[in-house]
Amino acid sequence: MGRTGSPRAGSSTPSRQQQQAYAAAAQQQGQQGQQGQQVQQQQQQQDLPTQPNAHGSPTRVYLNQNVTPHLLEGMKKLALEEPEKPLKWLSNFLAERSREYERD
């Protein structure tokens, strides 16, 4: 280092201050990346329809009224949990939902 405390010209080794600044910047970028992912997940959840459309053929109307709301709810939860066996998880979710809503 020269007399001013800065690295000599041509030196490729960053100073301790520069290393600390790099580390702080990397940590901040990591935190911003995590926050960005959380915001993106929340936006994706908000973009999903909560109620099915009631137009179309009688078959489509039936499915939209009786199946789609439960399937959408299950798919939202499935996306959040990301289980190892997603089809098995979804089938269990729908079976439980069926027991809750079709008791009579």
UniProtKB/TrEMBL annotation:
<dbReference type="InterPro" id="IPR049629">
    <property type="entry name" value="DPY30_SDC1_DD"/>
</dbReference>
<feature type="compositionally biased region" description="Polar residues">
    <location>
        <begin position="47"/>
        <end position="64"/>
    </location>
</feature>
<feature type="compositionally biased region" description="Low complexity">
    <location>
        <begin position="17"/>
        <end position="46"/>
    </location>
</feature>
<dbReference type="InterPro" id="IPR007858">
    <property type="entry name" value="Dpy-30_motif"/>
</dbReference>
<feature type="region of interest" description="Disordered">
    <location>
        <begin position="1"/>
        <end position="64"/>
    </location>
</feature>
<comment type="similarity">
    <text>Belongs to the dpy-30 family.</text>
</comment>
<keyword id="KW-0539">Nucleus</keyword>
<dbReference type="Pfam" id="PF05186">
    <property type="entry name" value="Dpy-30"/>
</dbReference>
<protein>
    <submittedName>
        <fullName>COMPASS component SDC1</fullName>
    </submittedName>
</protein>
<dbReference type="GO" id="GO:0005634">
    <property type="term" value="C:nucleus"/>
</dbReference>
